[in-house]
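All the exercises in this workshop are built on plain-text protein records. A record pairs a protein's sequence with a compact description of its fold. Backbone structure tokens are a discrete shorthand for how the chain folds in space. Once this layout is familiar, the rest of the handout is easier to follow. As an example, a complete record with its sequence and its structure tokens follows.
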Amino acid sequence: MRLLVATDAAAPQVNGVVRTLDETAAALARVGVQTTFLTPAAFAAAPMPTYPEIRLSFATAGRVASFVQEKGFDAIHVATEGPIGMAARRFCLRNGLAFTTSYHTRFPEYLRVRAPIPLAWSYAWLRRFHNAGSATMVSTASLARELESRGFERLKVWARGVDTALFRPRSATLGLPRPIFLFVGRLAVEKNLPAFLALDLPGTKLVVGDGPQRTFLQSAHPEAVFLGLRTGEDLARIFASADAFVFPSLTDTYGIVLLEALASGVPVAAFPAPGPRDVLAGSGVAVLDHDLQGAALAALRIPRERCRVFALRHSWEESASAFLSHVVPLREPVSTPRALVLRSAG
């Protein structure tokens, strides 16, 4: 099977969407699925305002058509709602071709913290975008229920995974005062970092990642340690060195870093927001509380081995299998009987 994934999120961007797509493609390759990405690298592009590392492509349906005809794909998945995603969607609709989409990011909420744009407007546009496809993949069942209440259709759950070979318990020390309370992720307003950095915690508050808020946060919280962007083995060692992982986001749809912390044997403290609640509620490996400081301190008492056992149940192979089960053949229009089956499936 030859699969095209049209995405505005791609390397060198470092975020959960890019990691999810890369890990899914690697897992699909192991079962014989050849995945090709259509990314900003294929087009002229300009930096996105406030997010210069994200580039907005000058993509067109015609360019997508040329790409598809040249490569001869069996299926198309539209992973993002940016210019490339819109061009791929437009190409499929013009040609009566089936395609799937995925909903990774709460853009309405992200936009609202930057501009006075009503949520209803943003969700109306996203609903129109996704409902044109044969299925929209979401990370959790509760997110599916929420979007269904907003009029989204044909929603399918595609959970995430973790690389338990890379992220694992290991002897690692950073020479910082303990306990170490760690955050890993993009340093942007939607991650709600001040809620973590303002906590009165013993030991060290450690922040890994980069983004538009880094300079401000470092200036406002000189007591915290900022390590910048880290990846691979370096990042895995930092995870393993922590005593608790603190996740202050209120808007993430999943949070792959939660699983990476747990795979490293590190318990989680988070608000009882939809992402952490869906993944971790009742698991015994996290403390979810509106009192984030109390949650962080309580998380220190969770056995590290329990965290590892939980993470081992979340492989990228299982995630990729769920993704593949929702993909539809390219030459199959949305109005065919199979599309109707997808629409009614639980």
